[in-house]
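Researcher: Next entry in the queue.
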Amino acid sequence: KPDGTGDYTLPTIHDKKTGIYMANTIPIAQYLDMTYSSTPAVIPSGTETLVNEIIDTNFPKLNLLFMFIRIKINPASGGYIERTHSVFFGGSLKDLIPTGEAKVQTLEQLKNSFGDIGELYKKSGRRLIMGDN
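Model: Structure for this entry, 133 residues:
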């Protein structure tokens, strides 16, 4: 854009058949599975607990990674992210980024989290953790 700001995305759908507007990946997947049960499931039956566990366990850690990444992005995007995400994180992202030994420990936790997710992929023996659907 001419003012230096970029375009940003958020997973959203508008189902013209039902008139529903939705945002965010998991609610969209749940809605599609419930509304269109005769089609292949987005979240395979019986895996809802696993999906929620992966999200609940790893999303907070990924948010920490997001704060580290924020340091490396262009100024226009950084300003946008600071304005929109500081409310979510409860303060300025700069102030929330760990330093010193806390930074080392946080990065190690993130590394381990990705290793845990990687192990799930290895154990599944598939391209996707819950099957190639």
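Model: The first strand starts at residue 12 and ends at 15.
Researcher: Noted, moving on.
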